[in-house]
Structure formats: C-alpha cells, structure tokens
Amino acid sequence: MISNRVIWARTRDELVRAIEELGFPAELGEAIAKHLGSPKAMERMIAYLNNVKPKSEELVVDEMLAIRSEIDAWREKKASQQANARYNEILYYGLEGVDEE
User: Fold this and answer.
1) pLDDT the model gives residue 97
2) How many CB atoms within 10 Å of residue 17?
3) 30-36: long-range contacts, CB 8 A cutoff, minimum separation 24
4) What string of H, E and C letters represents the secondary structure of the chain?
5) Tens digits of pLDDT across the chain (101 residues)
6) What was the pLDDT predicted at 59?
7) Is residue 22 a contact partner of residue 54, using CB atoms and an 8 Å limit?
8) Buried (b) or exposed (e) across 67-86, using 16+ Cβ within 10 A?
9) Which of 23, 63, 77, 94 is the 20 to 30 Å CA partner of 52?
10) Which pLDDT does position 50 carry in this prediction?
C-alpha cells in the first residue's frame, strides 16, 4: 500500500511539472501545492492547467484560490451538518438521552 506522503509527493511533482511546462517557475507550483494541501485538490489544479493552459500567473493563482475556497466551503457545510444533527438529537432525546462524545 502506498503511503499518503508518497501520494502527496507524486501529485505535487506532477503539479510542479505542469506549472513548469506552461513556462512558470517551479516555486509557484510548490507554493500552490502547499496551499491546496491535498492530492485531490492538486489533481483538480493539474486538470485546469492541462485543459485551460493559462497565460499568466494571476490566472493560475486565481484558480488555486477558487479551489481552496470550494474546499473550505465544503468543510464548513459538513461541520454545520454535524452540528445540526447533534442539535436535533438533543431536541429529540433531551440532554440525558444523548451520549457524550
């Protein structure tokens, strides 16, 4: 089984290579990989780079920020759903009927 670190490193290398193929510095790719944080997000960025082939660093960074924003919104939605489920448990069972986690 491949470890998460190996997957992350391979995906980062692929992202840096895609950035360099567009004529941008490798440091930009490394910074983007760091800010995106996950292989899945980096794969989305790679797909964007390969399909759109942006001409400026600003477009690359804008897409990175858009992907990051979507991820943050998804996490916030999931946290809200969990809080709502917990609240509904308390309403249904009362405070004594809810197990502490």
Assistant:
1) 62
2) 13
3) 32/60, 32/61, 32/64, 35/64, 35/68, 36/64, 36/67, 36/68, 36/71
4) CCCHHHHHHHHHHHHHHHHHHCCCCHHHHHHHHHHHCCHHHHHHHHHHHHHHCCCCHHHHHHHHHHHHHHHHHHHHHHHHHHHHHHHHHHHHHCCCCCCCC
5) 678 889 999 999 999 999 999 999 999 999 999 999 899 999 999 999 999 999 999 999 999 999 999 999 999 999 999 999 999 988 888 887 656 55
6) 96
7) yes
8) bbeebeeeeeeeeeeeeeee
9) 77
10) 96
Quote the radius of gyration of the chain (alpha carbons, Å): 19
Q: 42 with 15: CB under 8 angstroms?
A: yes
Whether residue 48 contacts residue 36, with contact meaning beta carbons closer than 8 Å, is answered with no
